[in-house]
């Protein structure tokens, strides 16, 4: 029955010829809470309450002029009270972005959460219906966590860009040097 084998072979070749999608690990379940570790690993295909967008989708949002991109790459911070971010190398971001480091970690401290909430309020002009776009690097849970936090804070137009700045740069799109906003205030000294 060579025709049945030939048909199966052609079907397999057709499947192999399909264009590969972005490096997305289909089937990664959305956790009930937040990802707590291993932030650079495959992410879910979506996020409940947010719109997952690809590079052309981000371009369309930016062309509309109403979205505010938020870069959430993690940074270390000086251990000095009220110390600055420690940026060991330059980072690139989508033009017009605001860089809010560490707001996508699994369990941020109270100061970071308060800072995140205040910065979102500032970035959106206190409009919970303003479009906001979260991104980091590709395969990075920091942006997924931050977008989920925004959804839980009541923001209605949250967009998540899983390809991140890596996908943006791979598409040859313009970037600018990233400058993190000043860090949240240091916690008050203990008793």
UniProtKB/TrEMBL annotation:
InterPro entries: PQQ_CXXCW, Rhodanese-like_dom, Rhodanese-like_dom_sf. It comes from the Bacteria. The keyword Signal applies. Residues 1-25 form the signal peptide. Keywords: Signal. Residues 27-53 are annotated as: Disordered. CDD domains: RHOD. Residues 94-177 form the Rhodanese domain. This is PQQ-dependent catabolism-associated CXXCW motif protein.
């Amino acid at each position: 029955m060579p025709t049945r084998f030939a048909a199966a072979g052609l079907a397999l070749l057709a499947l192999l010829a399909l264009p590969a999608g972005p490096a997305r690990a289909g089937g990664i379940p959305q956790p009930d809470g937040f990802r707590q570790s291993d932030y650079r690993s495959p992410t879910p295909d979506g996020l409940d309450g947010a719109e997952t967008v690809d590079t052309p989708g981000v371009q369309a949002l930016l062309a509309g002029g109403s979205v505010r991109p938020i870069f959430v790459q993690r940074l270390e911070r000086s251990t000095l009270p009220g110390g600055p971010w420690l940026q060991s190398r330059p980072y690139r971001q989508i033009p017009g972005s605001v860089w809010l480091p560490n707001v996508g970690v699994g369990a941020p401290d109270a100061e970071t959460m308060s800072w995140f909430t205040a910065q979102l309020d500032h970035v959106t002009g206190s409009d919970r219906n303003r479009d906001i776009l979260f991104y980091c690097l590709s395969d990075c849970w920091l942006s997924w966590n931050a977008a989920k936090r925004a959804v839980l804070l009541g923001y209605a137009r949250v967009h998540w860009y899983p390809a991140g700045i890596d996908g943006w740069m791979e598409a040859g799109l313009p970037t600018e040097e990233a400058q993190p906003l000043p860090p949240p205030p240091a916690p008050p000294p203990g008793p």
